[in-house]
Specification:
Layout lengths: L7 H19 L6 E5 L5 H9 L4 E4 L2 H9 L7 E4 L8 H7 L2 E5 L2 H10 L6 E6 L16 H10 L3 E7 L8 H20 L6 E3 L6 H6 L4 E4 L1 H4 L4
Parallel strand pairs: 1-2, 1-8, 2-3, 3-4, 4-5, 5-6, 6-7
Helix pairs in contact: 4-5
């Protein structure tokens, strides 16, 4: 059994190759940023990935992410908070993360903005519940434009794009449709004048499909680090 820190150079290179191949098949040429999702992975795994050149890291749990950051010497790391945001965590997210990818309601946008500054704005993706799951956080597609509008008016936030997590365990066709719908929404918002440059979608099991449908950022955990603790 290899641990999550062994062969990190090779694992990262293999992942970059898969991303490059997917980009080539998509034929768009758009750059794709890899966010290494390190939730429930030890700090040593992050350190190994950082030493191998990885810079963007994603964490879901604020306390875990902050503790991990504190134990690392990784000055160039860019930390993304991914997934649902509890409003009582907004101050910590603004203080310790460069990106907030789970902004899904006005109250959270306003709270994050209160704890960030225009000089060092928090990079924001609006999370969209594209599969319409009752249990899932994310703004409904029809509400995305208004939330983007609000984020864009807050100087302490910088609107970057949209993020989604399609329904887990859905068949490939449903996942593909969800990514297609996200891509359409993203392009529609851009056409309406929203300055978006990030479409964050695709995880270990489906990042190649997401890239085929216009993802510019993929969030990959287990395919890089192995199973979580
Ligand atoms: C855990 C998580 C990921 C990574 O999932 P893997 O299947 O391990 O690649 C990506 N995005 C979000 C929002 C997550 O919570």
């Amino acid at each position: 059994m290899t641990t999550c820190t062994e062969h990190m150079h090779e694992r990262l290179a293999a992942l970059h190759e898969r991303i490059a191949a997917a980009r080539q098949r998509a034929g768009t040429g758009a750059a794709v940023t890899l966010v290494a999702v390190s939730k429930r992975q030890p700090a040593a795994a992050v350190a190994a990935a950082y030493a191998a050149g990885q810079r963007h890291f994603g964490e879901n749990y604020v306390q875990e992410g902050v503790a991990k950051q504190a134990g690392l010497d990784a000055p160039e790391a860019v930390w993304h908070h991914i997934g649902p945001i509890q409003s009582n965590k907004c101050a910590d997210i603004a203080a310790h993360f460069a990106w907030a990818q789970g902004v899904d309601r006005p109250r959270v946008a306003q709270r994050l903005a209160r704890h960030a500054t225009a000089e060092a704005p928090l990079q924001v993706c609006v999370q969209v519940n594209i599969s319409g799951e009752a249990s899932k956080s994310g703004v409904a597609p029809a509400g995305a434009a208004a939330l983007c509008e609000l984020v864009a008016t807050l100087p302490a936030l910088r609107l970057r794009g949209l993020m989604t997590i399609p329904e887990a365990g859905a068949d490939e066709t449903a996942t593909r449709r969800a990514f297609e719908a996200m891509h359409r929404l993203y392009e529609d918002l851009r056409a309406q004048g929203h300055a978006l440059d990030t479409l964050s979608m695709g995880m270990s099991d489906d990042f190649e499909t997401a890239i085929a449908h216009g993802a510019t950022m993929v969030r990959v955990g287990t395919a890089l680090f192995g199973p979580r603790r």
